[in-house]
User: What shape does this take?
Amino acid sequence: MTEQKTSVQRPLSPHLQVYRLPLLPLMSISHRVTGVGLAFGTLVLAWWLAALATGPGAYAIFSAFMMPLGGLALLGWMIAIAFHFCNGIRHLVWDTGHALELESAEKAGYFVLAGWLILSAVLVALAAFFWAT
Amino acid sequence: MSKANVTPSLKTARGLGSAKEGTDHWWMQRLSAVALMVLAPLMMVLVITLIGEDYATAAAKIGSPFWGGVAFLFICASFYHAHLGLQVVIEDYIGNHAARLATIIAVRGGLIVLGLIAGLSVLRLMLA
Assistant: This one.
């Protein structure tokens, strides 16, 4: 009874320099980051539509912005919306009470990642196709 | 899942809770998400097919009843969804109550202005 253990197995706090976020929190944070990013993207969406409604002159200014810089932003917008879309479907599934266990949630997470990669590839390929023609 | 299932009975018992709006925020975020599941892919098609097109083609396409409708409904759902989502993010990260309220109001105002600009632009192209 008086015997004392010299090495007690205590939980270690995350070592911040080598700590890697598990998949689920990483995707949760990504959902927020892409959501906020897409909200900022509405600035460009509003500019695009306002330029179209204003006339060819305003549209030429917008197009000049889109050619080098905005085109890259558009690619980022498509990749972000693809992630938010796929992961958002997982959120809606969670809201029905399904896939809430750690294992099933992670499995659904891999489906989301696969869907995101496929959807992003399709969108980028389509964008490249329409840009080239 | 019907709305009745996600409405806590305490809401009925004690009014609408501390936020004074019950589960409406949560519920509308989900409803707008479901709407965007349909509208966002259509909007992506619209945007991608207009890459590199000239002014007349783009204006005519967004002025058409179908694509103009897609763009208008996407704007309604996405700006609303963005407002609800940004509000949650602000509430999570800004602790000071005055700063939190000011930021929420500013973001809401900005989204209303941008949404009106975008939506009215689409309507103008459709009615032109």
